[in-house]
Amino acid sequence: MLKRPVAPLLALFVGLASVVLLEYARIGVTFDQRWVDDTPVTTLSRADATGPHVVVAHGFAGSREMMQAYGLTLAQAGYRVHMFDFEGHGAHPLPMSGDVTQIEGTTQRLMNQTVTVIQDVAVEGNPVALLGHSMATDVLIRVAEVSEQTGPIVLLSAFSQAVTKDHPRDMLLISGQWEPPLRDFGLNAARMVDPTAREGDVVSSGNTIRSAMVAPFTEHVAILYSRAGRHEALSWLNRAYGQTGTVSILPTGWAFLALMAAITLLSAPVARLVTKTPTEQSKLQISSKQYALILSVPAIMTPLLAAPLDIQFLPVLVADYLAVHLGIYGILTLVMLRLVTGQIGYGSLRFAGIAGLLIWGIGVFGFALDRYGANFFPVPERAAIIAALAVGAIPFMVADAVLAWKQSVWRRIASRFALLVSLGIAVALDLEGLFFLIMIAPVIVLFFLVHGTMGRAFGKVTGPLTTGLALGLILAWALGVSFPMFSA
Description:
This protein is an alpha/beta fold. The protein is built from 16 helices and eleven strands.
C-alpha cells in the first residue's frame, strides 16, 4: 500500500495530467454560449471554420455538456457544432411537458425545439447534419422526416419506430458493445436496405446509405466518449459532405474518469487541512443481528408508508416522492438506532467541516464535472427543487452517517444497498407512477461511490453529524440538477 504522503501526490499528478489532456482537446475551439428562443445553445468551432453545421442533441436526463466529446472532435475537424439542451434538461429554464405516451405530445415539442435550432443555423444549399444520443435519436429521425434542411444523421444508442427502408436516407448508427438490444436495432435498420448487412458494413440501395457499427467496450454512457465512435462519426460526415478534415482523437473519456477519481481521493488530505483536531466520537457497538434489524425496518416500512401517497408538488419526475422516501427512511433509521442501541452518536457540529466538504464536493468536483462531463450547476428554476429534496436528503444522510460511523466496509455497503432495495419495493408497489426511480438508482450509486468517499474522508476528522449534514445538501443538489423538470 502506498504511504500516505505518496498517495495524495500521485492523485494530484493524475488530476493535473488529466486536466492538461482535457484542455488540450479544447485548444483552438471557441465555446460560444447563446440562446435560440428559450433554448440554451453552445456552438463549438475553430476561428477559421467553414465546414458544415452539425446540430447535436443529448439523451434523457443528459445535457449538452455530455455531448462535447463528439462535438469537439467535429469542431477540431472544421465543422461548426451546435449543442443544445432539451426542455427540462441542463440549463433549459422550461420543463418538459405534454403526453409522453403520444408522438403528438412530448416528442412533438422536442421536435419543434430541434427544428428551431436547425433553422437558426441552416445555410441554404448546405443541409445541417444531425447527431444525437438515446432519447434524441427518435426525435432526430422524426425531425429529418419533416425538415428539408437536414442532411446526414449519426445516432448513438439509437431506437425509433420511425425508421423505414427509405428513411432516413443517410444514417450511421453506433451502438455500444454492451447494449445488445440497441445493436440489434441498428443492424435491423441496416438490413432494411440490404438483408445481408453485417455490423460494420456500409450498405446502400438507390439514394439510401446506412451502416450499423459497434463501439467496443462501451455501454449506454461510455459510448459518449468512445474514440472509435468519434472516429466513425467524423468519417461518416466527411464522406457525406466531401470533407477531408482529420483530427487526433484523444482519450478524453479516460482523462475525465481519472480527474474525477483524483478529486475524490484528494478529499482526504483536504479534510485534514480543514480540521486540525480529529473527532473523538466513538463507534457504536452494534451486533450483526441488530444492524440487520436497523436496516430492514426502514427499508420495508418506508415504501409501505410513502408509495400509496399521491405526492406531486415538484416539477421533476418522482423527485417529490424521493424527497419523502428519503426523509421517512432517515427518521425511521434514527428511531431504530435509538430503540435497538439506546443511543445515537451524532458527534459534534463543525461548520468548517461542512463548508470544506461543500466546497470540495460541489465547488471543485462540480466545476470539473460541469466543464468536462455533465451539467452540475442549476438554473434558478431548480433552486426550490433542491431545497425540497434537502428536506428529505438531510435526515437520510445524517442517519446513514451515524449508522455507518466506523463500521466495516461490508456494513456500509449493506446500508446503501438497503436503500436501493427500499426504492425497488416502492417501484414494485407503483410501477407506473414510480418507474423513473429505476433511472435515479445509478445517480445514487455514483453519489455514494464519489461523494460517499469524500464524506468518509471528512467524517474521520469531523464526525458523523457534520458529514451527514453536508452530504445531505450535496445529495439534494446532485439529484436536483440530474433529472428533467416535467410539467403535465
